[in-house]
Write a structure and sequence with these properties.
five-stranded mixed sheet, alpha/beta, Nucleotidyltransferase, domain 5
């Protein structure tokens, strides 16, 4: 039987889970979360919220991925969109590679310092190992993608064209809003950890509000929150 990860914390697991969800899901600062919890009668320091996010964010994200694993593997093999986000860490340019499926699910996040063929190859192999090979891969005009696709024998599945990769471009927006709220990152490892955690949270709560009827959206939102609360019992 696995040990309880909350066993050394005086604060209830429900409050910790709420604080982590608020910080990762919404573009809030640590002090914003502290103030919102205070309004609900919970007195915690923003540094406690930072500790909770760092410790429990990856745990909750891993549970989300586990619950969604079978669904995502069945529905992500049709079409992928690949793109990179430019992120500065201590004034040094880094690249956050992201693979998104046709429904906007973030499949893989990978932080590097370069955009060469070897980096693109590593990124593709990581995504394919987890989800299987897609039937179609849409990319921008970065030559590293073509070289990597040729290396693994998938060059006939690549498609490049203007406006075709809007799905990936739009998927960057929630993460970029979080980046601004966090006043950027200071370490490459922190960026990798948070990007993976944020992707899982975004997948779980991304309900396509703009294309669903109000009643459908409310039903899906209730189901997502119910599943979220059950993560602690899993």
């Amino acid at each position: 039987m696995s040990k309880d990860p909350f066993r050394y914390f005086k604060t209830s697991p429900e409050i910790i889970q709420l604080a982590v969800m608020m910080y990762v899901r919404f573009p809030l600062s640590l002090r914003n979360v502290e103030d919102l919890l205070h309004e609900r009668g919970v007195d915690v320091c923003h540094e406690s919220v930072r500790l909770w996010v760092d410790r429990f964010g990856p745990i909750l994200a891993r549970k989300i991925r586990t619950k969604r694993a079978s669904y995502m593997r069945q529905h992500t093999q049709w079409q992928w969109h690949l793109d990179e986000v430019f992120v500065k860490i201590n004034s040094v340019q880094h690249y956050l590679w992201r693979a998104v499926d046709h429904e906007g699910e973030v499949l893989e996040s990978y932080v590097t310092k370069t955009r060469d063929k070897q980096t693109a190859l590593t990124f593709l192999k990581k995504a394919i190992k987890r989800y299987g090979a897609p039937r179609l891969v849409i990319t921008d005009r970065l030559r590293s993608y073509g070289a990597a696709m040729k290396e693994i024998g998938n060059e006939d599945r690549q498609e490049v064209g203007r406006h075709l990769n809007n799905r990936a471009e739009n998927s960057h927006l929630p993460f970029q809003r979080r980046e601004r709220a966090m006043s950027r990152f200071r370490r490459m490892s922190n960026l990798q950890k948070f990007a993976s955690t944020h992707a899982s949270f975004h997948n779980h709560f991304n309900l396509n509000r703009h294309i669903n009827h109000r009643q459908t959206f409310k039903s899906m939102r209730n189901a997502a929150l119910s599943e979220w609360r059950q993560l602690l019992a899993g």
